[in-house]
Amino acid sequence: MTRILPPEIMTRSAERWYPVGAVRLFEAYQDPDQMLRWFGPANLARWLKFEHDLRSGGGLTFGFSTSDGEDFWGRCDFIDIDPGRRIEYVNSITDPDGRVIRPLPGIDWLLQVHTVVSMTPGGEGTFLRVTVGPHEAGLREQAFFAFKWADMKARFDTSFDILEAFLGRFTAPRHH
Fold first, then answer.
1. 116: closest CA among 144, 76, 151?
2. Do residues 19 and 124 lie in contact, with contact meaning Cβ atoms separated by under 8 Å?
3. What is the dihedral of CA 128, 133, 136, 140, to 10 degrees?
4. I need a surface site. Which of 33, 64, 112, 161 has the fewest CB within 10 A?
5. Residue 135, number of CB atoms within 10 A of its CB
6. Is residue 67 within 8 Å of 78, Cβ to Cβ?
7. What are 78-106's pLDDT values in tens digits?
8. Domain ranges for the chain
């Protein structure tokens, strides 16, 4: 029998304050042209695919190559969108055809991660909080998620840095 731990035990959050309003921060997620400028890892070399439909029931499918020559594919299935406040979705690593896969065979990485992006006004800006947790995962997957949190948190911090630079100056899309 698979035991699922309560979400409050298994979720983790990363947060950053940005000197922009919540509506501006939401636009960086909503507008595909803007999202292409900041979404993805620091070593993103070029986009292979980017289809974006930010609405409840919509989705984001993407593929990119890194400067290390690796290709990555994924998707986000949007559950609930509250413009300027909240984006909720389930994200997965996929193959190029969009089928959900484990990134490495034999590793108990999650097939699906539940994600909530919240935007909360604070001071002269907005707090962006990304809360993630296992979605429909067994105990081994949940344990691996907890084990890998430090790596995931570092990647969130890098993404936050890229988003901060984007919001501070509007640049051309990275290798689109």
1. 76
2. yes
3. 160
4. 33
5. 19
6. no
7. 999 999 999 999 999 999 999 999 877 77
8. 7-43+82-168
CA–CA distance, 47 with 27 (Å, rounded to integer):
20
Residue type, 89: Y
Q: pTM to 2 decimals?
A: 0.87
What is 7-43+82-168's CATH number? Answer: 3.30.530.20
In the prediction, which pLDDT does 102 show?
86
- Residue 159 sits at the vertex; the CA angle it makes with 8 and 40, to the nearest 5 degrees, is 110
Between the CA atoms of 145, 148, 154 and 159, what dihedral angle is there, to the nearest 10 degrees? Answer: -40
Q: Can you give the C-alpha Rg of the chain in angstroms?
A: 16
Distance in angstroms (rounded) separating the CA atoms of residues 172 and 121: 28
Task: Please choose, from the candidates 90, 122, 157, the residue with its C-alpha nearest in 3D space to the C-alpha of residue 18.
Answer: 122
Q: Measuring CA to CA, which residue among 169, 103, 134 is closest to residue 9? A: 134
Question: Among residues 68, 34, 49, 57, which one has the least CA distance to residue 174?
Answer: 34
Residues 6+ apart with CB under 8 A from 43: 66, 67, 68
Are the beta carbons of 40 and 52 closer than 8 angstroms? no
Q: Which of 161, 114, 121 is nearest to 26 (CA)?
A: 121
